[in-house]
Description:
Layout: H1 4-32, E1 37-45, H2 57-63, E2 67-74, E3 78-84, H3 98-115, E4 119-125, E5 129-136, H4 139-151, H5 161-171, E6 177-182, H6 190-199, E7 201-208, E8 220-224, E9 231-235, H7 239-262, E10 266-271, H8 276-290
Parallel strand pairs: 3-4, 3-6, 6-7, 7-10
Antiparallel strand pairs: 1-2, 4-5, 8-9
Helix pairs in contact: 1-3, 1-4, 1-8, 3-4, 5-6
Amino acid sequence: MIPKEILRTIRRIQITTSRMVTDVFAGHYHSVFKGRGMEFDEVREYQPGDDIRSIDWNVTARTGQPFIKKFVEERELTVMLLLDMSGSSYFGTVNQLKSRLGAELCALLAMSAVRNNDKAGLIAFTDRIEKFVPPAKGLGHVLRIVREAIYHEPEGKGTDIPAALEYLNRVTNRRTVAFLISDFHADDYKRPLSIANKRHDLAAMSITDPREMDLPDIGIINLEDVETGKGFLVDTSSRVVRDDYHRNAERIFDERQRLFRSINVDHIDIRTDIPYTRELYRFFRMRERRV
């Protein structure tokens, strides 16, 4: 049985993200993410001004009257959410853990999808595939995605982004809208990311906590890499140590940005200390200008 605390969290996320979808993102989502093209709807009699290239010659020949084919946009999409549940995601010093923020982003994106009659699915991963929720529609399905994103206890600690992307390509037989939600504390994912981006409409959402960019001056502290278990002492009272830490963090961030640009992957920078609505709104506006 799911603990009451988790149920309350799921309910809070549902209310929060539902309001955001209704008030802010619903129209942007629909205009940014298009369907797969046009599909046949029906035939009707030809009317003056209709494009003669749409004439259905078989029906016209049978009836002796000109008929045209009518097409409509095939709107339905599949949205796949790839959620990093590795050890480093269970870290946060402002507002909430990165893992909880990732779950809320999943809820918002899944809610946007089902509000537009699209399907949403989840691939939760660490150094292995932890959970797969096949794409489906409906509010109940969104709540299942949120429940798994919050309540699932991962077995792995590390991060294997290539494995998650390869799994995405195996379980989907059509082009999807895919969001990769991670802190990207991983290596060697450029080529798999590039391949997946050619097959899908892929966006990378990186989640960062401010303490991953700057260390506070609080003396000697014992830090541990939660993915490897390796511990080490850091003297945060040293200005040199703090400056080196900041420069290294900025270098990693800039390298990641260049990597995304080099393979034309859209990137959304999410921080635990800044409301994510601003960055998502900026992303949607950028995509709208591109369409």
